[in-house]
Write a structure and sequence with these properties.
- This protein is of the alpha/beta class and 220 residues long.
- It has one domain: Rossmann fold (3-Layer(aba) Sandwich).
- The chain is 34% helix and 23% strand.
- The protein is built from eight helices and seven strands, in the order H-H-H-E-E-H-E-E-H-E-H-H-H-E-E.
- It has a seven-stranded mixed sheet with strand order 3-2-1-4-5-7-6.
- The longest helix is centred in the middle third of the chain and has 14 residues.
- The N and C termini lie far apart (37 Å).
- The relative contact order is 0.16.
- The C terminus is likely disordered.
- Bound molecules: S-adenosylmethionine.
- S-adenosylmethionine binds next to helix 1 and strand 2.
Length: 220
């Protein structure tokens, strides 16, 4: 996977993305936003926001920033913003999630929906999500990971050489992802039809800028 191949793939997908991947993966988006349990005034960053299918799900009282590497996907998100009157959407920006322009500790919650298996370097993605999230804040992911079902898993392995053309890695392993990123995941649960995807909820386990240990975290 490389960034140019990803841009090309999502330029092709942009027009019909919602038809192909909208309704079928919406339960996962909904589950994540519910689980985020956003509070009034919170600043939320969604990386790889795409066409903005999740945006109408956020409560009015938060401030949401969405970034994506694909201008063509964001064009569709702008159309949705106008159509749905999303007043809580602070900005939609073309930006690489592996190299964000935001300052450290800028957001209360950072979320990536169906993005981890797409980016060239998932470890770098998580490092950046941690950096821009406040210490003790929360990081959420939803993604399809390599299936443990022998048949489906076998098909995914066969498709793996086509990752560049598909625009995602079909054989992306959850265990390897968690191991490589050191994500402090305390809630991992299946979502979507046939439990096709997995939601990962993690505490931002970085040190605060002042080196003060992050406050204890009590999951609800
Ligand atoms: C499978 S789509 C998911 C879109 C949306 N989150 C959703 O729920 O449908 C993956 C998105 O990640 C974006 N993306 C891939 N690599 C990226 C990167 N390095 N930085 C920002 N966005 C990226 C793609 O352009 C695409 O819009």
């Amino acid at each position: 996977m490389d960034i140019r191949a990803i841009e090309r793939a999502y330029r092709r997908y942009a027009r019909f993305y919602d038809v192909c991947f909208g309704a079928v993966f919406q339960p996962g988006r909904r589950a994540v936003v519910e689980r985020m349990d956003c509070g009034p005034g919170e600043r939320i960053l969604e990386v790889g926001v795409g066409t903005g299918l999740s945006l109408p799900l956020y409560p009015q009282y938060v401030s949401v920033v969405g970034i994506d590497i694909s201008r063509h996907m964001l064009d569709q998100a702008h159309v949705r913003q106008a159509r749905c009157g999303l007043d809580n959407l602070a900005a939609l920006m073309v930006m690489d999630a592996e190299n964000m322009a935001f300052e450290d500790d800028s957001f209360d919650k950072v979320v990536a929906m169906y993005v981890a298996s797409v980016v060239p370097n998932p470890e770098r993605l998580v490092d950046e999500m941690r950096r821009v999230c406040k210490p003790g804040g929360q990081i959420f992911m939803v993604n399809h990971f390599h299936s443990r079902n022998p048949l489906l898993g076998g098909v995914e392995r066969l498709l793996a050489p086509l990752s560049k053309q598909l625009g995602f890695r079909p054989d992306f392993s959850l265990d390897r992802f968690l191991g490589a990123t050191g994500l402090d995941a305390w809630n991992i649960c299946p979502v979507n039809l046939f439990d096709f995807s997995t939601m990962v909820e993690a505490r931002n386990n970085k040190q605060s800028a002042a080196g003060i240990p992050v406050p204890a975290f009590a999951p609800s």
